[in-house]
Write a structure and sequence with these properties.
It is a single chain. The protein folds into three domains: 1-33, no CATH class; 35-154 and 205-227; 228-325 and 380-617, Neurolysin, domain 3, CATH 1.10.1370. It is 59% helix and 3% strand. The protein has 24 helices and seven strands. It has helices at residues 16-27, 35-71, 79-95, 98-108, 116-131, 137-155, 168-177, 181-192, 199-214, 221-226, 233-265, 299-303, 308-321, 329-334, 373-392, 407-420, 424-429, 441-471, 479-491, 510-514, 520-541, 554-564, 572-580, 587-603, and strands at residues 2-3, 160-161, 164-165, 275-276, 353-356, 363-366, 493-494. Helix 6 runs antiparallel to helix 9 and helix 18 runs antiparallel to helix 19. The longest helix has 37 residues, at 35-71. It is globular, with a radius of gyration of 24 Å. The protein starts with a strand and ends in a 14-residue tail after the last helix. Bound molecules: L-captopril and zinc ion (ZN). The site of L-captopril (X8Z) has 9 residues, from strand 5 and helix 15.
């Protein structure tokens, strides 16, 4: 997640009504720019200037307190929590104030007379207000306290294995490698314990999140977050269904392949119909790429003798080679990039994020980087957010519009570079592999599919459907049952044994708690990033998309910059059609993985497929 969180409450077209008005405005004859408009525009500008000035101040204070809360969690010490709550409350009191809501609405009554950039900003003011309207001060206050408490429980949790504290990095490293199924079961079960302390908090948050946004006319919190795309829930679900449907034939082959391969690897007497969750290298089964190691492309081996800092510096160098600026000195001074030292008396948020603290120069990342392939990918991902922030921080983009074209775009940029940085020609150029080693292209493609194709039924399927249901009123006692029913139908994964209602396995996923109702962002991101990679390979580099080298290519940097620099000043569909000449579509992703189909069919010949031919949607 990117925490453009000044930002955290996400902005956009306030409602479908607004969207219709925007469209109507776009079709209307040009507004007369006589004196009437000048007056209205001057009035709107005066409001926006004054709003922005106060908001930036309050937001920066809140952001700093939130940063403290996430980077220093001390058991039994609520100093950071209290400070964060107070700063967030002050921010909410302003952005949700009745005066600001009324003034933005009044100004928007003359939308046609306003400059389109002004109208976009006013829409964002209203979107932001809906997240914490002061028409419901009590609800907003309770919600802030509940959000803070959930973060502390999630990231203050002491994971234990055999009575010893372990970090999530430890669990992930070991889940990536362990071959003993009993060990794997212990690891997986340990990773799910945190859910038991989060279920109640989630139920409370659902009620409070819904309550706050409903008072400004949104159906529920899921609909509110989806409206940031200018879409209805129905449209967003349809888009995600399309993604699942399109990747399904390939996913079904991968699922069968994994069942048989893993049964053999773990010495199981039978091939299970569904994949046991603890067999997979990722806690949620969202990425299976570690199941395959490809000779010549083994980043774990290549990074083993590097320091964690080298990984981040190398990531920066890649962006710089494309023509981007160096990261500001403050990034290095203020970020929290590495795991806490052994024996630290406090904990920190163990999930990676990127923060645009003041919507100006103060950019930071919160990570726990280790020199391995997982963190290599994550580092590139986070730097993508940081370079997005840096690119749209310019006078032409008002602070209220310093955001991605949509949230999915924000998630995509770093992965475009991250994936490019795992291809052979790049690794050879960077001295991370030996160019003389033969690399099996199909194995490379298989490995990537186990990351990227496998991610779609999880993101567009499980997460998106569960959160839709959650905010539409799913009863807390049904959380776990509903979760596993989606995990089974979309991912073809089952728990090692029946999970009782005492667990909240959905709650173990960070985003469910602190990046609510937005996970389809990553599905959107995965789809458009293949569209962008195809465009870069074919139209800019004239290289095979499977074996590119972006290093030093300022033309690639210029293409990306063109998208990044405009932030949210333009509608995302326009940004897409202008930069790529097409609409959002999984075609590029499918074309990329097409060569894998024949290989998987051959591997799976004679094996029994247990997923249906079409997904259950
Ligand atoms: O949460 C993230 C980023 C946050 S900026 C690290 N991701 C999703 C996840 O970990 O579940 C990136 C891929 C999907
Ligand atoms: Zn992200």
């Amino acid at each position: 997640m990117s925490r453009f969180s000044i930002a955290r409450s996400l902005i956009a077209t306030a409602s479908i009504v607004t969207v219709i008005l925007v469209l109507a405005a776009a079709c209307a004859p040009p507004a007369d720019d006589g004196a009437g408009n000048d007056v209205q525009q001057a009035e709107a500008q005066a409001f926006l200037d004054s709003y922005t000035e106060t908001w930036l101040d309050l937001a920066y204070t809140a952001e700093q307190a939130d940063w403290q809360l996430n980077t220093r969690i001390v058991e039994g010490d609520d100093t950071n929590a209290k400070r964060s709550e107070a700063a967030t409350a002050a921010l909410a009191a302003y952005t949700g104030s009745v005066e600001n809501i009324e003034e933005a609405r009044r100004l928007l009554e003359s939308r046609d007379a306003l400059d389109p950039l002004q109208a976009r900003q006013l829409d964002k003011v209203l979107y932001r207000a809906a997240d914490n309207p002061q028409t419901e001060p009590e609800l907003v206050k309770r919600r802030i306290a509940a959000e803070t408490s959930q973060v502390e429980k999630l990231f203050g949790f002491d994971f234990q294995l055999d009575g010893q504290s372990v970090t999530t990095n430890d669990i992930d490293d070991r889940l990536g490698k362990a071959t003993d199924v009993a060990d794997r079961l212990e690891l997986w079960s340990a990773s799910k314990e945190v859910g038991t302390v989060l279920g109640e908090g989630l139920a409370e948050l659902v009620e409070l999140r819904n309550g706050t946004v409903q008072s400004l006319g949104h159906d529920d919190y899921f609909a509110y977050q989806v409206s940031d795309y200018g879409m209805s829930v129905e449209e967003m679900m349809k888009l995600n269904h399309g993604f699942v449907r399109e990747v399904w034939p390939l996913y079904r082959q991968l699922h069968t392949w994994a069942r048989y391969e893993l049964a053999e690897k773990y010495g199981a007497s039978e091939v299970p119909e569904m994949l046991p969750a603890h067999w997979l290298p990722n806690r949620w089964g969202q990425d299976w790429s570690q199941l395959v190691t490809v000779e010549g492309l083994d980043l774990d081996a290549a990074l083993a003798d590097k320091e964690a800092e080298w990984v981040v510096r190398q990531g920066e160098d890649f962006y710089v080679s494309l023509g981007f600026d160096r990261l500001p000195a403050s990034f290095w001074e203020k970020s929290s990039l590495y795991p806490l030292p052994e024996g630290a008396e406090y904990k920190k948020n163990n999930h990676a994020s990127a923060w645009h603290m003041d919507l100006r120069e103060d950019v930071r990342s919160l990570m726990s980087v280790q020199p391995n392939e997982r963190w290599w990918a994550t580092t590139h991902h986070e730097l993508g957010h940081i370079y997005y922030y840096m690119s749209y921080t310019r006078p032409e983009v008002p602070p209220l519009l310093r955001r991605g074209a949509n949230r999915g775009f924000h998630e995509a940029i770093g992965d475009i570079l991250g994936l490019a940085s795992t291809q052979k020609p790049f690794l050879v150029e960077r001295g991370l592999t030996d160019g003389d080693v033969e690399t099996d292209a199909i194995q490379a493609l298989l490995r990537e599919a186990l990351g990227q194709i496998v991610f779609i039924p999880w993101s567009a399927g499980v997460m998106t459907h569960f959160e839709r249901d959650l905010y539409a009123g799913l009863a807390p006692e049904e959380y776990n049952q509903r979760w596993w029913s989606y995990v089974e139908s979309f991912q073809g994964i089952t728990p090692p044994e029946a999970r009782s209602g005492e667990y909240c396995d959905a709650c173990t996923k960070t985003h469910i708690n602190d990046d609510a109702a937005q996970y389809y962002d990553y599905a959107v991101s995965s789809i458009i990033l293949y569209q962008m990679r195809q465009h870069i390979a074919e139209e800019i580099l004239d290289q095979d998309a499977h074996a590119t080298n972006y290093w030093g290519r300022e033309d690639v940097g210029a293409f990306l910059s063109g998208i990044l620099e405009v932030g949210a000043t333009r509608d995302w569909r326009e940004v897409m059609s202008e930069s790529l000449g097409e609409e959002i579509s999984a075609a590029a992703m499918l074309a990329y993985f097409e060569p894998l189909t024949a290989y998987l069919e051959e591997q799976n010949a004679g094996r029994v497929h247990t997923l249906p031919e079409s997904p259950t949607l």
